[in-house]
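Anyone else keep sequences and structure tokens together like this?

Example one:
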Amino acid sequence: MKITFWWRQASGYFDACTRALVEAGHRVSVIYQSPTDSAPFTSLVESGFTHLESVSIWNQRPSDAVLESSLIEEPDVLVVASWGVWQYVRHSQRAPKTTLRLVGMDSPWRASPRQVVGQVSHRRALRRAFDGAWVTGTQQRVLANRLGFATWQILDHLYCCDSNLFKAINAPEDRFDGPFLFVGRLVEQKGILELYQAYRSLRSTTGTQRPLKVIGRGLIPISREGIEVFDFTDPSQLRDHMDNAYILVHPAHLEHWGVVVHEAASMGLPMILGPRVYAGSRYLSSGRNGLYVGQSVSELTKALLYMDELPFSTYAKMSRASHQLGNLLDLSSWVDNFEEGVRRLVSQRR
């Protein structure tokens, strides 16, 4: 198939997914937004997309001419990153009749004002622009339904981590004395302030020597004894950090999905997640491979203490459970899911 992506920013997992499609025999083109300061992915921009048929990068807004030109190529499938880039939605309505048009959705249904209004204001336009939706999980499926897509028009598994890269080398016993690990932007929404305070409380009350490793960039300074802060890293470096970590801690107030959760699970890391980190719906079974935790500092402190004091036998079981959950989806099954979903939608829209 000839597949065109109108995407947002580059990322390691998106690069891996497009490579998996090409390895399966598909021809892939991408139009995407230039990297942001918080997630630069400069290595992908400079050398990572050589496997693609064509690549176009935009800054302020997508070029109308470039979008129209990509439709002249008559792709078999057009995948649009979201309904938030209105130029994408508008031009998708002009796609050839032979092109199957999918809109990606990672936003969960939360009954927010934008979503409630969108059910009325965008429903008709979305139905004209797209033949189906490609979502990340259950709550995203609810949103797609509310925006007018029938259940049969919705594909699962929009995102997949680079399962070829995120494989553990170290055994659980090698990671048992490793650090707590946080990966994400250093902004309030990611729960970094609560994590900072909870870790300080844990360290002062228990005397634990287990460090907290923070990977990401942002405006919130969190340097403190026991906390190691690293700048944004490319995927291969992140894999190495994970391979030496004890658990992943991601107490975000809201994370629409969180591919980092899939990456950590694939590496066999137990985890502590906020209840609105929606990738947890697939990769965290509370009590089996980690814990959900609320937004209060005291609750997060207790969760850190509980995980810090796990006996090795329990930690090893959690690690194996994470690995099992992470392996429920890999690049091969992701491609299979996409191909089968496309075949189904094409046959049912005839």
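And example two:
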Amino acid sequence: MFFRTMIVSILAATWALPVVGADENSTSQGEDANALGPNAEVATNSGNIAEVIITAEKRASTLQDTPVSIIAMSGDSLQERGTPSLAALAQGTPGVSLKSEGPSQTEIEMRGMTSSGGNSATVGFYLDDIPLTGPASAQNGHVVIDPDLYDLNRIEILRGPQGTLFGSGSMGGTVRLITNQPNLSQFRSTIESALSGTDGGGFNHKDNLMVNLPLIEDTLALRVVGTEDHTSGWIDRIVADPFPLAAGNPVGTVRGDVQDAPIEKRYPGSNAYQIYAARVTLLWKPTESLSVTPSFFHESSNQSGISAYDSVPGTEAHYQPFDIAEPQTDSLTAYSLNVNYSFPTFDVTSSTARWTRNSTQVEEASEAFNNPLEGITYSSNYGLPNPGYYGPGGSGPEHGMEDDPSHQFSEELRLTSTGKGRADWAAGLYYSNFYSLWGFKGTTPNYSSYMDLGTLAPATTPNWFDAYSPTTLKQYAVFADTTYALTDELKVDVGARVNRYNYRFSSCISGWGSGNGASTPSCSGLIPLSSTSFDPKFNLSYTFSPDLMTYATVASGFRPGGGNAVYPTTGAAWAAAFQQQGYTSGKWPSTYEPDRVLSYELGEKARLLDRRLTVNASIYYEDWRHVQLEAYPNDWALNINGNYVSIYGADIDVRADLGAGLQLEVAAGYLYEWLEGGPHWVIAPIHKLPEVAPESGTVALSYFKPIGGSYAFTARLENSYTGPRYSIFFSNPYEFTGTYRQLPGYDLINIRAGVKFRETWSATVFVNNLTNKHAQLESMFTENEPQPDFTRVVTNQPLTAGVDLTYRY
């Protein structure tokens, strides 16, 4: 009832808004500019399409003057679009794909370079100058935090290898979130509240606050930003009693009729989550040349359950035989200190940062453990009747908990020219020390009903799987990049980075469900690895006119190698899996090598029709060698090296001022990839990588009309499309490594309309996911036993409508 009432109110308010007049010259100048234009950006030109000042090459330039394939969006534009998170922005950015199981659980990929294998991401992620490395071994991937985008100066999404300036982990691209810095001369404050309702869920509310305080005029200022975000869930968690047993031929291939089973308990909105975040930045500028900026950032999230439903029966629900919740928590605290000193011809900047993070996740798998095809219960292995979930021989409840603490210290010292003369350059030193400790504990109270995989006798301990994997990665780097103007039109950019890494890894697995059973832990011992990489970049650009530039780039990137846990190679299950993957050495590989990419790109940036039309396009080829792949022998994760991946693709971004207050944006990307996985790669289809959408794109139409001299009406209609892609499934119990199944493509439509009053307030109504699309985002890999008769599918938020209120003073 609440949801229907809100929809009716929003539609009525939208149709009641007046539409009169037009002003095509309204612009914005930075974070404190007060504009009514449809795309307020940091820098503007004489036309109606604004530009953004970026620092993608470690020195300032405009988006159109930088010969790099990049998406840049100002904080004002993010607020106008109502972009709530990085995940939402990435879904509509061509060449960018992601997978996410909830808040702060987002893994980003660019241009087909998936992060599924290895211990490092393929996309770098920065909050200002803080490199935020994802966990090394988390089962949900190399996930990064997904901070609220309130009070940002801009976002920069750099496509293609960025190894020269941003190091390892940026072989596919880099995402940079640049915050607004304190204003030394003016008190400023803003407040925002977004209230909404979700179909199948409930009431959502998000509140943001920013306060800028000049403490000593022109010398010392403090900026404080706070966020509170509650999103109601839309997945029901249902406990059935009695729980129907699996059926089919053989028994276990068909799930029981859970939809019609008696309901013991129902938990609506079981995937609801709550986020709190705070950012505090102090700017001290004792002289014109020196600035000191310490900052603090903290974000914590708590989600009641995973945003995933059971593929069978396919409703927005998860069915369980026992009442076991699956909460996820994540907490990150970051401290940084930036010191900048300006000399007459160059700047010196020191960026020091330290962050700590801890993530936890609970997974329940009682139904999977009872499935006779899994061969886990003692009775199922010896032809005895299936014991069911209850009774004297019942298997009982089962769950596992993942704990993933990590922390990192980093320091970058760089020198950058001030842009005078024909040469423009940046150079520096970098050091980071990363530590991650992945741990997992599985518990089965009724353990005597299970079979110890080592002794083949009934288990004698409740611990079915205990694992921990500490990882340490130290990196040392020196880098330099120089742009030289050979003529006024022709520029050459040459850069290189020498990176040395020292890696330490160990793993120990025990419990009756481990490969060797409870009596013999599988421990790898210390695995040390070291390597040095050289990442060059060469870029040639030619400016035909102030409105037309072409460029060609050859660039490289790399990721460090790593170590694997120890798995058995003999026994009924492991011998078959070992044989299937074609190893002859008598053991699984204990390590995997670094992988690297060499990228070739041609691009152009053009402004046409008196700068009312902007067209930026690029074509590229990625040659990815020794690609790190994640295999799943017996559904356990194992990193191996494939031979190579060839990726061909193109991106195009178009913005057009149509006149009469209308502006059109079209962005599209396409790529084709071919994986040659080598003799040990057996996941079918063997020439495909997971979580990569070949086609993606966004079309948006925005509208701006002034109302008199003080008010303005704004509206935006946006449609984002993500094409079909593959995700891992374990639907066939006789497959030792799983298979890739293609998920259907989907599009999401958002609409916004609102009124602004000068620089003081705005009120906007919105409907996200207008067509109520229930997209299949990914198949969820579980550290617990995968289920052969159904899988869990991560999905998006259903139709959500609300109002966004902002006030500045």
